[in-house]
Amino acid sequence: MQSFPMSAGGPDFPSRNGPHVVTELNRDRVMDSSTYGVPVDSPNGYRTPVEYAVRLNNNGEFVHAAPWSVAQQGNSNVSHGCINLSTERAAWFFDFSQPGDIVEIKNSIGPTLSAADGDIYDWAIPWEEWQAGSALK
């Protein structure tokens, strides 16, 4: 087991709590705020190349290298919802991760992952609730 200092989503863009699922691994990726409706040229906009991007849901939450936030990692949450790690730690996480792995985000000020977050919500349904909806009963 590893434990790394990180920075999650800040007050305006908090990370969602709950189990997430690794769905995609991108060695290099451009993060672009326009993909979720925030124009790149607006005050909260960005278009930033990152390394070691591990997608956690379809709303744009990733674990990725963020060398610009190393001073905040372990101290404060400053991202737009992603989990920021140092480049070395993000590379370790990228190499370790496989699609289908569960990544649980805890203690964020953000909401809990829900059906509004799309198809990966299945992983956030408590087992008792999942069983209650089973056609096998």
Automatic annotation (TrEMBL):
The keyword NADP does not apply. One of its GO terms (molecular function) is transferase activity. Its EC number is 2.-.-.-. Keywords: Cell shape, Cell wall biogenesis/degradation, Peptidoglycan synthesis, Transferase. InterPro entries: LD-transpeptidase, LD_TPept_cat_dom, Transpep_catalytic_dom. It is an enzyme of class 2 (transferase). Signal peptide: none annotated. The keyword Transport does not apply. Pathway: Cell wall biogenesis; peptidoglycan biosynthesis. Residues 1-20 are annotated as: Disordered. The active site is at 64 (proton donor/acceptor), 82 (nucleophile). Residues 1-106 form the L,D-TPase catalytic domain. This is L,D-transpeptidase.
